[in-house]
What we know:
By secondary structure, the protein is an alpha/beta fold. It has one domain: Glutaredoxin. It is about 35% helix and about 25% strand. The protein has helices at about 10-20, 35-50, 70-80, 105-115, and strands at about 5, 25-30, 60-65, 85-90, 95-100. A five-stranded mixed β-sheet has the order 1-3-2-4-5, with helices on both faces. The chain is globular and about 35 Å long. The two termini are about 20 Å apart.
Amino acid sequence: MNWLPLITEEQLTQINSLSQQKDIAAVVIFKHSTRCSISSMALNRLERSWNLHEQSVPAYYLDLLNYRGISNAIEKLYGITHQSPQILVIKNEKCIYSATHSDISASELAEFINS
Length: 115
């Protein structure tokens, strides 16, 4: 899986733009705490099960320990309360799906992305 690092708030504008493109099914943001074993488990499980085409589903990785401010901006922009770990699916500039902790599932993501 090719994660795109989410390291600036300005990238949220790019994510919104991508989420509107016809050849992009959706954009994924994974918020991860590198010190949390539950977050690591969720990330590993997601990566093992990921089978979405990376060209049509750009996937961004947010390291919460280094970029917590970006998570705050995501919360404001999409109206989704911060959690960790957390995955968001962005389509047409809106968060259409979010899941946290053990509810993070590649198959569930695929259902929302392909709908």
